[in-house]
Structure formats: structure tokens, C-alpha cells
Fold:
Amino acid sequence: MPPDDPQQLLWNPAVETLSRDALRALQWDRLTRQLRYNHDGSVFYRAQFARAGAEPRDIRSFEDFARLPLMDKADQRAAQQESLDRFGNPFELLACAPREKIVRIVSTSGTSGTPTLYTHTAHDIAVINEMHARKYWRAGIRPGDVMLQAVSLSMFTGGLPLSDGIQHLGACVVPVGIEGGTDRVLQYLDLTRPAALLATPSFGRYLIEQAPERAGRPARDLGIRYFFCVGEPGGGLPEVRTLLAEGFGAKVFDHTGGGHAFHGISPDEPPERASGMQLVSEDHCLLELVDPETRAPVEQADGAVGEMVFTFLDWEGTPFMRYALGDLIRVWDAPRDCPTPGRLFRILGRTDDMLIVKGVNVYPAAIQDVLAGFRPRVTGHFRIAVDGPGPPLSPQVAPPLILRVEHGEDARTDDLPALADEIVAACRTRLRVTPEIDWLRPGALPREAGKTRLIERRGQARGSSQAIRSSSVLR
Structure:
């Protein structure tokens, strides 16, 4: 139920304001119970304990727990397939709850392989709903507000679980989805007059471009007061946030978390500040950091960087344990002037999207960050063109790194070589790589409604290139 006082800043202040010591004690209590539950309920987890030569009673500290094996998407997919082959269902080996308690299955988007499944019991759904309510309440959403959901609804963890969470808060959801296309989204924006729009940053920018022609008025006249970024990087970049805020006349929030226990949302702050996101689910999600290459633990000191590893706490269906999702994140303590409590984090990139150029690790999100600083001389839309299959199968890229970049509407052809040199200089300084720029006209690249794949195989690259290439070699 919503808090009695709608002016209250937090949905569940008793938990969300716990001290670090009190939160750690709660996590330990839930972890010890979760370990016994996982061991007793899952063939997969019993094997994980056996690999470490341990049983739940042997785990007497967080340091002991960190010696249990990690799992990743490859492990999960292998367990799913083995379950299908041996038992005729995909969750027999990994899910801990009996089949009669599993009431929902959702999945990842499956953009990088076979979708990985999340099984939920009624208890798990209640936890997920609580996390969504915490996020949106912090942002200012209240009962009676209408929220239009313009993301994929088909099995995606940000589909039905997100709709349920909005309703749990007491707000009204319009689950139009994105499958029907842009005109359908605009139609329901006009029919339902929502206060909030949930979409990828790419689709938000596309609506700003298209609204004058397709809706007959600019996007800022659509009545959107909140824009929630979901599904892809961009919502944490000051330039992208400012563009969305100005284009819609709305507050902009970056947030993450669908049908699982890791949930975060950015504070209510000006778009140019972009402090990161606050983890709101630490009572149900134990976060660890590991070195992405050695997998050694990384201490979560202020400003620490590592691959995110999470363990679900107080979870029944598929309670992931020491799951390395593949996201590289930085964590730090919230500043004193932050309006809401909670540690901050920023997703720096995905380890399975990482490119290696002459021994230097490069993440597409970092390139996006560099290019965003050159708006409006560039549109911000780009692709990385590679010769092979690309990461994660083939992260090595023979130099030079080719960036296919849309220039801005007002950019003159004669100015593009100098602009390319500026971009290359920024990449050399900030990323330690020296790319080449292939210029594209504005609008040449497809605008994706869902998660945008920024790496394309050269022969399959979409969007027509101009006959101009700007050399990346600074003279």
C-alpha cells in the first residue's frame, strides 16, 4: 500500500533509511537462510557448493561466501538446456521453488544469445513490486498518475513485471508496448495524456525528432512530466539527459531493474548533474564487485570499479547466487546534498560488449559519452563497424577502430574533417584509442525502439554513408 502521506519522500523509509551496519546485519541474516534454501532446493547450487568443498553451515562470513564459485549467463543457459533435455522443462536444475509455486516466467531480451529465464513465485512478485514502487515514488510518481510503457512487453523483464510494479504503487499503467510502432505510441500518448513515459533514450530522442510531423506538435507539448530511461545506456549521460529534458519539458530519470532483485534509479536532480543511480534493493540483493579478468574480489571503497556480481536475498523462484551479469560498474557514497539515501553506482559498460584495440579495452558506452559532448554538431547516433563477429566471440579489433557517425543538420561538409580531428583527439585523451570517422547524414541510422546494438559487422552495417571519410591520424 502507498504511504499515508503522499508528501513522504520514500516509499518504505523504515528499510530505505537503514544504517550501513543495520543493512549489513539484515543481509547476513537473509543470506544464511538463502544459502540453506538454495542448497536444499537446487541440484545446480548443490554442485556449486560441492565445487567449493563446502556446505551452507561452513559459510560463516561474507569472506567465506566470496569463495563460492561465480555463475554467469553461460552457466545459466547450460542449466536450462540440461533441464530441458533431462526433465522436459527449463528450470528443474536451477529453480529452487517447487513447480506448483512458480507462477510466472520472464526472460532477458535475448539480444546476445538464447534468452535466460527468471522464474517467479507470488512472493518474488511481491518483492519485485516493492522495488518498482520504491523507485517511482522517489521520482515523484503518486497514485493517480498515468505512466505509458513504451518498451517491449513480450517476455521482457521490463515488460509485465514493470507494469505490475506501477500498479502496486497505485499509479495507472498504459502498457502500449513498442511492438505496434511509433504512431501507436503517439496515439496513446494523445488518448491517455500520461504524466510519465518509459522508453529507451534512443526512442525518446526519436520521438522528439518525429513529434512535430507525426503528432502535429513538438514533444514538449505532449504533457510528459517524467521521462524514465530504460533498457540501454544514455540515461546517465548529461548531454542525453539534457536533450530529453528540454525536448519533453520533463524531469529525466535513469533507472534499472525488471523481474529480478537488482534495482536502482537516479536521484531527482538537474539533468546536467547525472550523479548515477542509487541502489534501492540492498535488503533483497547482495552486491559484490570482482575484477573482470581475474575474478578476484574488489573492495567496495568509494569510487571502486569492478564487474557486478549479485545474489538474491529472500527469494524463492530462481534465486541467483554470485551471478556475474557482465556489467562493469563504479560505486561511491552519495554526497551530503543528495535528496535520497543509498549508495550510488554507474554502469560503465558490458564486459561482453568490450572491444580490445591494440591492447586497450574500449566500451561502446564510453564512445557514446564522448560523442554526446559534440552535440549538436553530431546527432549522437553512431555505430562501431568491425570486420569479424565482434564481442564477445571476437573482441579483438585490428586498428583503426571505425566509427560511423551522423553529423548534425547544420554541419557543413567542409567542416567535417576538422570536427573529426576534434572527436579523435577526445577519444585519444579519454579512451586511449585513435579511431577513424565515417560520416553519415543525419537520420541515416535506424532509430531503435528497443535496445540499440552499437556494434555492427562491416558488411551488415545499416545506414548509407557519405562519400567522405575523415582520417583519424592527427598531424
